[in-house]
Amino acid sequence: MKKLVVFYSLDGNTKFIAENIADEVNADVLELKPRNEPKSKGFMKYLWGGREAMMRTKPELFPLERNPQDYDILFIGTPVWAWTYAPPLNTFFSTGRPSNKKMGLFCCHGGGKGKIFERMKKALSGNTILGEIDFKEPLKHNRDADAGKAKNWAKNLISAL
Ligand SMILES: Cc1cc2nc3c(=O)[nH]c(=O)nc-3n(C[C@H](O)[C@H](O)[C@H](O)COP(=O)(O)O)c2cc1C
Predict the structure, then answer these.
(1) In this predicted model, what pLDDT tens digit does every residue of 134-151 receive, in sequence order?
(2) CA dist., res. 154 & res. 146, Å (int)
(3) Which pLDDT value is given to residue 96?
(4) For residue 108, which atom of ligand 1 is closest to its CA?
(5) % of the chain with per-residue pLDDT over 70
(6) In angstroms, rounded to a whole number, what is the distance separating the alpha carbons of residues 155 and 60?
(7) What is the number of H-type helices and E-type strands within the chain?
(8) Contact predicate 123/58, CB 8 Å
């Protein structure tokens, strides 16, 4: 079975989890890269990003380097922005949205994931969601433990198939 980890990450947490999952289950990786990112990594990014998320914008992405339809299992990851998924996933869901795939969903947040998985599942209807998992800013808190947690989750998800 071909596996792909699709993710967006602004500050590296989701990327860290994505890389650990890919490493564990021998998956390819597709990073969603918007053409415009916030210039500031400080407080302004919350104002800018929160607004983008609440308005459900669809930022233009650089061309995707892999085609998700070529894979059997997709792991899809995002940071939580304003209690939902980050806008680059809006773009992905509305343009290259995969269908008839088996999926695992993951997210990173600062303590409040809101209804992100419900929203992702709604946006991904037509696919089979095998499981979901969240992490609280692994790069700040439990880096090694979270890497292990991500690997175990991904391995178990695949072996249950
Ligand atoms: C614009 C913006 C909005 C955010 N909104 C939330 C939120 O609603 N709930 C939460 O727990 N964390 C929120 N966060 C924190 C991020 O979800 C958290 O730092 C996450 O680990 C970042 O992932 P990344 O490093 O992959 O970008 C927000 C961060 C940004 C930049």
Answers:
(1) 999 999 999 999 999 999
(2) 12
(3) 74
(4) 21
(5) 99
(6) 33
(7) 5, 6
(8) no
| Domains delineated in the chain | 3-159 (3.40.50.360)
| 108 CA to centre of ligand 1 in angstroms | 7
CB-based contacts of 84, cutoff 8 Å, min separation 6:
53, 114, 115, 116, 119
Residue 77 CB less than 6 A away from ligand 1: no
Q: Which amino acid is at 65?
A: E
Residues 86, 77: Cα–Cα separation, whole Å: 10
Q: Is 105 left (phi over 0), alpha (psi -120 to 50) or beta?
A: beta
What tens digit of pLDDT does each residue of 27-54 get?
999 999 999 887 677 888 999 999 999 9
Query: From ligand 1's centre to the CA of 83, what distance in Å?
Result: 8
Any idea which residue has 């989750």 for tokens? Answer: 153
- Rounded to 5 degrees, what are φ and ψ at 63? -55, 140
- In sequence order, what are the residues at sequence separation of 6 or more whose Cβ sits closer than 8 angstroms to the Cβ of residue 100? 126, 127
3-state secondary structure of 79: strand
Ligand 1 lined by 9 (C-beta under 6 Å):
yes
